[in-house]
Amino acid sequence: MRFTSSIVIFISKKILNDHHLPLNLYPDKFEAYSAGTHPTSVNLLAIQVMQEINIDIGQSKSKSVNEFVNDYFDYVVTVCDDAKEECPIFPNAKIKLHQSFEDPSTFDGSEEEKLNKFREIRDELKEFIIKLLKI
Question: In 1-135, which residue ranges form alpha helices assigned H by DSSP?
Answer without folding.
Answer: 11-17, 44-51, 81-86, 111-132
